[in-house]
Structures are given as structure tokens and as C-alpha cells.
Design brief:
mainly beta, Immunoglobulin-like, Jelly Rolls, 2 domains, eleven-stranded mixed β-sheet, 2 helices
Length: 338
């Protein structure tokens, strides 16, 4: 019996020694070097070269939440935003052994205009850029308006887009407005959005500049993701909200922040979001007031399309001011940079 136990433990020790251990056939990687060449054209491109004796593949952590497996060790990665990043590289041997090394790279990225609407052509919003959602009810938000595609509710004049919320009887609703969207016309993944806008006045008004994931038809909200660049409710005058909705964090449980500014209904302000694989930063007049940590497990790593609308009342808009007749969100421009 003692001999049987001795043989068993000898076999177990041999198997343990053979797992992820250095042997003549599975030598451990050594002498890892990592080099980085940052492009001088401010494109964000960085050429990495990793090399180690006895390595069969390399794992890159680019320092911004993005990871990659690179068998050759050589790869060019394009950073979407300026910054200093700590890059970690793990070299792996054939037996599972590893060695790692970290370096820092500083990248300057000059953003270029990808898409915009300057709202310079009078009449209806550009049909090459915008379509309409029409109807009542607010898609589950219990809103009071009926969205139309009429010039009465969305019109370009004197260099700005006006989305006009009116108190009027229309198809069973007591208010009309418009909801414009770039779905199937323009969408993008990562970048910076800036919209210069002046907001409507009055209790119950609920203007928004926001985005939804392109896959909404196959991944219904909130699985598609939602990025609210700017929301304002007239019942909380001058408070600007920036919010993201995703599974487990949507509706009243969404992730977001807010800031108080002055004169949102009488002056134009610049409402922005900077969206990367690592974060989504919300700002007013270039001052960031909320940062959300993005990651590969979230739905914010795909193309999104734009939406512009003014709602009335509902779950977030709240009570309507007595005697309300009309008010408008006026947008000077909306621009997308990458």
C-alpha cells in the first residue's frame, strides 16, 4: 500500500512539474524589449514593436481600456484622444510562461471635422442628414406632445434650426413638436460632438441632444446604449444633464451627472461630449462636468446616430407651466470631430 501511495504522489509531482514550467521544449521568454514610435502628424498613430527570446505571442494593453493579441509583436494602434498612456506588454512562451514590460507614450491627436450641419439653408432640415420620428406618447415616457414633420415644428431660418414646441390640438394631443434623427443617414464610433444651442423656456419643456446605437432594431433599448449629450427640463431651470443608459443602468437608474450654468434659455452655449474606448466626457462650454468610464463590455463601442428633439411633460419633463403657448430649441450648429 505504501508503495502504491508513493507511486501516486511521484506521478502527481511529475505532472505538476510539467505544467507551465520551463523545459528544453518549452523555454521561458526572456529579454523583452518594447519600442514605440509616435507619428509626428498628430494622427494618434503609434507603431509598437515588442520582441523577446522564446516568445510565441504578445498581449498589448494600450493603457486606455483597449487590449490586443499580437502574435508578431509589431502593431500600429491609433489613439482616439490626446494623452499620456501606460502601455503594458506581456510576452508569452509556448509553455504558458510570461514576462512583461511597461512603457509610457504621449500622444497628441488633432481632431478633424467628420460631419456637421451648420443650418445655413432656409426651409426644412436637410433631408440628406435628418429624418423624423413622428407620433405621440414619447416612446414610453408618457410625454404630451405629438411629433410631426411639419415646418411648423422644425424649420431652418436665419442660420439656425428651430425645433418648436407648441400648445395646439393635434391628432388627440395637446402639444406638437419635432424629433429629428440621423439614423440610416449618418452614424459614427468615437469622437467629439459639439452643439451650440439655446434652450426653450417653460415648465414641462424637455429639450435633448442625444445618440442611440445603430443596432437598436436588433438590440432594443437599453441594450443598444444611449448617450445624452444634453438634456434640460424647464422645471429645473439652468441645470444641464449628461447621461448614459445601458443594461442595468437605464431610466431612473442611469449613469450621469449635471451642472448649473447661467442663461440657458436666453444665450447660446456649447454642449459637448468626447467619446473614446476608455471614457465618455460631458461638457458645457468646454468645461467637463461628468466622466463615465467606458469599457469593452458596454454597448458604447459601436456606431451611434444623432437625435434632436423637444418633448413636453412626461416622466422627466414634469408639470407643464400654466398658460404655456410655445417655445423653441434653437441650434446654431452641430459638429462631429474625429
Amino acid at each position: 500500500m505504501k508503495q502504491a501511495f508513493a507511486a501516486f504522489f511521484t506521478l502527481l509531482a511529475l505532472l505538476s512539474c510539467g505544467k507551465n514550467k520551463t523545459t528544453p521544449n518549452n523555454p521561458a521568454p526572456t529579454n523583452l524589449t518594447v519600442n514605440a514610435v509616435v507619428a509626428t502628424d498628430n494622427s494618434g498613430n503609434v507603431a509598437f514593436t515588442a520582441s523577446a527570446t522564446n516568445a510565441v505571442t504578445y498581449e498589448y494593453d494600450y493603457g486606455n481600456g483597449v487590449f490586443a493579441t499580437v502574435p508578431s509583436g509589431s502593431v500600429t494602434y491609433k489613439y482616439p484622444a490626446s494623452g499620456t498612456y501606460t502601455v503594458n506588454v506581456i510576452a508569452k512562451g509556448s509553455g504558458g510562461q510570461t514576462i512583461s514590460k511597461s512603457i509610457q507614450v504621449t500622444v497628441t491627436v488633432t481632431l478633424s471635422l467628420l460631419w456637421s450641419d451648420e443650418f445655413d439653408t432656409p426651409g426644412a432640415p436637410d433631408p440628406a442628414k435628418w429624418g423624423y420620428d413622428t407620433g405621440a406618447g414619447g416612446w414610453g415616457n408618457n410625454e404630451l406632445q405629438h411629433y410631426t414633420n411639419r415646418l411648423d415644428n422644425a424649420v431652418v431660418s436665419n442660420g439656425t434650426l428651430k425645433i418648436i414646441l407648441k400648445a395646439e390640438s393635434y391628432s388627440g394631443s395637446a402639444y406638437t413638436s419635432a424629433r429629428l434623427l440621423s439614423k440610416n443617414k449618418f452614424s459614427f464610433k468615437y469622437g467629439k460632438v459639439e452643439a451650440r444651442a439655446k434652450l426653450p423656456l417653460g415648465g414641462g419643456t424637455w429639450p435633448a441632444i442625444w445618440m442611440l446605437g445603430d443596432n437598436i432594431n436588433t438590440a432594443p433599448w437599453p441594450a443598444c446604449g444611449e448617450i445624452d449629450i444634453m438634456e434640460h427640463v424647464g422645471n429645473q431651470l439652468n441645470r444641464i444633464f449628461g447621461t448614459v443608459h445601458h443594461p442595468g443602468h437605464s431610466g431612473g437608474n442611469a449613469d450621469g451627472g449635471s451642472t448649473m450654468i447661467s442663461n440657458v434659455t436666453t444665450e447660446f452655449h456649447r454642449y459637448g461630449v468626447e467619446w473614446t474606448p476608455a471614457s465618455i466626457k460631458f461638457s458645457v462650454d468646454d468645461v467637463v462636468f461628468y466622466t463615465f468610464a467606458n469599457s469593452s463590455s458596454l454597448p458604447f463601442n459601436q456606431n451611434f446616430f444623432m437625435i434632436l428633439n423637444v418633448a413636453m411633460g412626461g416622466n422627466f419633463g414634469g408639470a407643464v407651466a400654466p398658460g404655456f403657448t410655445s417655445s423653441e430649441m434653437e441650434i446654431d450648429y452641430i459638429r462631429v470631430f474625429q
